Amino acid sequence: MTLSAADVAELLLGTTEAGGSAAAVVVVGGAREGLPGRRMALTVPPGAASPQAHGGLGSDSLDAAATAEMMEALSDVRSHDGLRQIEVDGEQMELYLEVRWPVQELVVVGAGHVAQPMAHVGALLGFKVTVIDDRPDFATRERFPDADRLIRADFSDPFADVPLHVRSHILLVTRGHKYDYECLIRALRMDPPPAYIGMIGSRRRVRATYVQLVEEGIDRALIDRIHAPVGLDIGSETPEEIAVSVAAELVMLRRGGTGVPLKDRERVAERFFTQTGGQ
Predict the structure, then answer these.
(1) What contacts 258, CB < 8 A, 6 or more positions away?
(2) Is the C or the N end of the chain the one with fewer CB within 10 Å?
(3) Does residue 264 lie in a domain region?
């Protein structure tokens, strides 16, 4: 079966929207006549034990080599789109590879000042954003133009209309500790657990939450899953800065980063002056 560009786009989008991963390649150069433009895709639906192959590049050996490239890309969350050079049957060929991951969801509970920039930044990062609040004048399209969904809900059961799953990233930024705690308990008891549970708050407020959780008999392993205070330490103070801090933590966890300044990690200046003997 020959795949068109539209077929590939539909496979990538449909699979990732459903919570799976997918990769695709197209022959772009260095191949004999008739092969450039051929496409192949691998999709891994959620819960699938093995990938499903779609299309083909014109030979079993080329399909096998392309499949190996796509499998390698799918095994590393740091993989990115780009050209890949392969050798098949003594021929050098060039493929363009695309890799897509499951669509992630950001559920912002609370529609106050921090929630607004957080929803915007979350959308920029590719999250499907849901904003929940119990106040009809707060969770509005005017205040959250980038959100996919705006839901009015009682904080005693905030996720009644928001199915949570392993791709859900929950950020608790309600107007009070009482509401944050009610939502937190609900999130911690989800099975399977969401990918991320973050809660804004001062050290004192977070400590009070932990004390309350322990008193209610919540297991330590569940408590350790909470990101609180939320975000990376960048000295943030304004709602916009707090949103950047939280977004940085989300990216770090998704990509396997360390949060260490790249200057300290790469030490380019130090190495440069060592190699050149400069002062």
Answers:
(1) 252, 265
(2) C
(3) no
20 close to 48: Cβ distance less than 8 angstroms:
yes
What percent of the chain has pLDDT above 70? 97
Model confidence pLDDT, tens digit, residues 166-198: 889 999 999 888 898 999 999 998 888 899 999
Q: Which residues contact 128 (CB under 8 A, 6 or more apart)?
A: 103, 104, 105, 106, 148
Whole-angstrom distance, CA of residue 83 vs CA of residue 85:
7
72 shares its domain with 190: no
CB-based burial label for 60 (10 Å; 0-12, 13-18, 19+): exposed
Co-location of 115 and 244 in the same domain: yes
pTM comes to 0.78
**Domain holding 142: CATH number?**
3.40.50.720
Number of domains forming the structure of the chain:
2
Q: Is residue 173 part of a domain?
A: yes
Q: Please report, for the chain, how many H helices and E strands are present, in that order.
A: 9, 11
State the residue range of the domain holding 44: 5-100
User: Is residue 275 assigned to a domain?
Assistant: no
Same domain, 146 and 18: no
pLDDT at 278: 60
The partner residues of 198 in beta bridges, in order of sequence, read 171, 227
On whether the CB atoms of residues 163 and 135 are closer than 8 A, the answer is no
